[in-house]
């Protein structure tokens, strides 16, 4: 099952967790310092909350898929359609090890197609390994 990912910047993680838990009648799947994510079944959504002081803004968007093969297929499809893509394999990002491919829309909004390969104690190792090199993009 694929689902859309929505990563939001929040100013207070505890307040955001409380709000989104009530909004979606769901508890977070993962909570770490400055970070939480929800795996919501209905609607199918991966909601990521990133506490960074600039609340109320979009961090980035994505599509979570189940396998590395789906990431590879998305990369091929995006490149064949003429989009510039950047692939990353086995990166530490958002307290997970991931394979992903990135594309950026005309307004510089970053989209990732990714799969989670395993859990990680690391939020991210470098800005480039997690959500691109553009500081405005933030991190997943």
Would you give an account of this structure?
There is one protein chain. The chain has 140 residues and is α+β, with helices and mostly antiparallel strands. An eight-stranded mixed β-sheet has the order 2-3-4-1-5-8-7-6, with helices on one face. 31% of the residues are buried. The chain starts with a strand and ends in a 21-residue tail after the last strand. A hairpin with a 4-residue loop joins strand 3 and strand 4 (45-51). The longest helix has 13 residues, at 68-80. It contains two helices and eight strands, in the order βαββββαβββ. It is 18% helix and 42% strand. It has helices at residues 13-24, 68-80, and strands at 3-10, 30-32, 35-40, 45-51, 57-64, 86-93, 96-104, 110-119.
Main β sheet profile? 8 strands, mixed
Distance between the termini: 20 Å
The residue ranges in which pLDDT falls below 50 over 5 or more consecutive positions are 132-140
The helix-strand sequence is EHEEEEHEEE
What's the tally of helices? 2
Rounded radius of gyration (Å): 14 Å
Strand order of the largest sheet: 2-3-4-1-5-8-7-6
Mean pLDDT: 87
Lay out the secondary structure:
Elements: E1 3-10, H1 13-24, E2 30-32, E3 35-40, E4 45-51, E5 57-64, H2 68-80, E6 86-93, E7 96-104, E8 110-119
Parallel strand pairs: 1-4, 5-8
Antiparallel strand pairs: 1-5, 2-3, 3-4, 6-7, 7-8
């Amino acid at each position: 099952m694929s689902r859309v990912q929505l990563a939001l910047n929040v100013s207070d993680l505890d307040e955001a967790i409380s709000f989104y838990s009530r909004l979606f009648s769901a508890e977070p799947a993962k909570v770490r310092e400055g970070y939480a994510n929800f795996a919501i079944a209905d609607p199918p959504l991966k909601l990521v909350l990133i506490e960074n002081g600039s609340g109320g803004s979009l961090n980035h968007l994505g599509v979570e898929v189940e396998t590395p093969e789906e990431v590879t297929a998305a990369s091929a499809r995006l490149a064949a359609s003429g989009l510039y893509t950047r692939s990353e394999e086995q990166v530490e990002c958002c307290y997970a090890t991931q394979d992903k491919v990135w594309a950026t829309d005309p307004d510089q909004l970053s989209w990732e197609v990714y799969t989670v390969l395993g859990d990680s104690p690391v939020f991210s190792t470098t800005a480039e390994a997690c959500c691109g090199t553009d500081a405005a993009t933030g991190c997943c």
